[in-house]
Amino acid sequence: MKASVIICTFAVLILGIALDVKVCIAGITSKYIRRIEASGDMPLDSPHFYVPPGYNAPQQVHLTQGDHEGQAVIVSWVTPLPAPSIVTYGLSKGHYDHIATGSCTYYEYYNYTSGYIHHVTLEKLKSDTTYYYQLGFEASARNFSFITPPEVGPDSPYTFGVIGDLGQTYDSLSTLQHYLNSPGQTVLYVGDLSYADDYPFDNNIRWDTWGRLVESSAAYQPWIWTAGNHEIEFSPAIGEKSTFKSFLHRYSTPYHASGSTSPLFYSIKRASAYIIVLSSYSAFAKYTPQWVWLQAELAKVDRTVTPWLIVLMHCPLYNSNTYHYMEGETFRVEFESWFVNAKVDIIFAGHVHAYERTHRISNVMYNIINKDCTPVPDDSAPVYITIGDGGNIEGIAGVFTEPQPEYSAYREASFGHAILEIKNRTHAYYYWHRNQDGKPAVGDSYWLLNRFHAA
Ligand SMILES: [Fe+2]
Question: What values do phi and psi take at 82, rounded to 5?
Answer without folding.
Answer: -60, 145
